[in-house]
């Protein structure tokens, strides 16, 4: 957790029973609307990664883009979108992953990375870990090296961050939530 983790967590809104009964949705909109909180969020990532010699931030569609782009700018590295299937205009590679009720697919431009590029994967939250692991697989297949996976929120009870660790990747989250918070 970052030095601003408790503050960032306090700005995130919990919307009970959305999108379905029994689910607590963690809404980052208030965090994005609060300029001081958003700055602290980006600073949390900058402070963590400024000395890691990254070549690129691979941000996952779509909320990962919101954090990944300013972070790439601040770190002086490239920004690479990992998109939902059918959204990229050039030659792509794709990876299917399992959702709670089905499957989804993410894609990456086939020329996104050079062999050995050091990549940070960024998303807004880690839930079941499927999207993060699919992005990591794409990056590995394209020759990149995943240095770490990162998110604003870790929903620890869903087990995704542990799955990502079990697959051999380091995980960083600014804050975490349990279901009863």
From TrEMBL:
Source species of the chain: Halomonas huangheensis
Protein name listed in UniProt: Adenine phosphoribosyltransferase
Domain Phosphoribosyltransferase intervals: 33-154
Similarity field: Belongs to the purine/pyrimidine phosphoribosyltransferase family.
Keyword entries, A-Z: Cytoplasm, Glycosyltransferase, Purine salvage, Transferase
Gene Ontology annotations for the cellular component aspect, listed alphabetically: cytoplasm
Molecular functions (GO terms): adenine binding; adenine phosphoribosyltransferase activity; AMP binding
Pathway: Purine metabolism; AMP biosynthesis via salvage pathway; AMP from adenine: step 1/1
Enzyme class: transferase
Main location: cytoplasm
Taxonomic lineage from the root: Bacteria, Pseudomonadati, Pseudomonadota, Gammaproteobacteria, Oceanospirillales
Pfam families found in the cross-reference section: Pribosyltran
Catalytic reactions of this protein: AMP + diphosphate = 5-phospho-alpha-D-ribose 1-diphosphate + adenine
EC annotation from Swiss-Prot or TrEMBL: 2.4.2.7
Compartments it resides in: Cytoplasm
Purpose of the protein: Catalyzes a salvage reaction resulting in the formation of AMP, that is energically less costly than de novo synthesis.
Complexes and interactors: Homodimer.
Biological process according to GO: adenine salvage; AMP salvage; purine ribonucleoside salvage
């Amino acid at each position: 957790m970052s030095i601003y983790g408790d503050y960032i967590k306090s700005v995130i809104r919990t919307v009970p029973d959305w999108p379905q009964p029994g689910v607590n949705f963690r809404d980052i909109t208030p965090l994005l609307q609060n300029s001081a909180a958003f700055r602290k969020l980006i600073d949390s990532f900058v402070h963590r990664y400024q000395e890691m010699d990254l070549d690129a931030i691979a941000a996952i569609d779509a909320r990962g883009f919101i954090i990944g782009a300013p972070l790439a700018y601040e770190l002086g590295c490239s920004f690479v979108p990992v998109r939902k299937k059918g959204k990229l205009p050039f030659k792509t590679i794709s990876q299917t992953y399992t959702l709670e009720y089905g499957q989804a697919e993410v894609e990456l431009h086939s020329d996104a990375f050079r062999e050995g590029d050091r990549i940070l994967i960024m998303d807004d939250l880690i839930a079941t870990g499927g999207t993060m692991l699919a992005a990591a697989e794409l990056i590995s297949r394209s020759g990149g090296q995943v240095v770490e996976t990162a998110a604003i929120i870790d929903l620890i009870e869903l087990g995704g961050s542990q799955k990502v660790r079990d697959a051999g990747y380091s995980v960083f989250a600014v804050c975490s939530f349990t279901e009863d918070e």
